[in-house]
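Retro notes - structure team

What went well: the batch runner handled both jobs without manual restarts.
What didn't: labels got mixed up in the shared folder, which is why I'm recording both outputs here explicitly, each with its sequence directly above its tokens.

Job 1
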Amino acid sequence: MRPHAMRGLAAGLALAGWCGCVTPGLLPVTTEQVARAENRWPDMTAERLQAARTLCASRCSGCHAPPDPRDRAPALWPGEVQRRAQRSHLDANQGEDMARYLETGAAVGEARPVVARTP
């Protein structure tokens, strides 16, 4: 890649990160994910999934890096969110939407193995 193209790419990525467009670990909401969510939960919308992603970025990052939804099987996310809801100051609706975002995000691709973290 040419040097000026590299500078432009670097500047674009920096701007996207500054704007909050790129959140490490969290997958962007996709049309496939929205379709899966709307099919399973008729009241779910793309806007609610995006709001849940944003909430996940802000609430989870207080204690750890925001999760990659593929780190767990889809069925495990509701329990994970429920266990952490009080510490994250989530109300019932926020917790439900966050679990739905993570659950449908996990189903987008194959689950990745969880890397053991050392204390």
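Job 2
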Amino acid sequence: MVETNKYAFDLEGTLVNLESWHQYAFEEVAESLGVVFGITEFNKFVGAGDEAISEEIAKLAGSIGEMVDPVKVRGLKTLFIGIYYIVLIFILEWVFLNMWKRLGLLAAIW
């Protein structure tokens, strides 16, 4: 059996701040439900987690007559954040591939 090295990179919160992406995703969900949940509202929930934010957006939607389950809000947020993550992955892949190519070139010259 061949032993291989495996590496995992947890970039969220270390190299990449994705908090604003979560905020944008919740903002998109709220907008799709006809309510406003911008940065001011989001900042009140920093550290509270997706469940608390989803409940608040569902409550806001309910106040205008749009009855929404908080679980649906979280599902929609996951859909939106998934799109952002895909974009991030493509960007990071491009950056790292170019970096490795440059390092390989530098190693060959060195």
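One thing worth noting from job 2: The mean pLDDT is 82.
We'll revisit the folder naming next retro.
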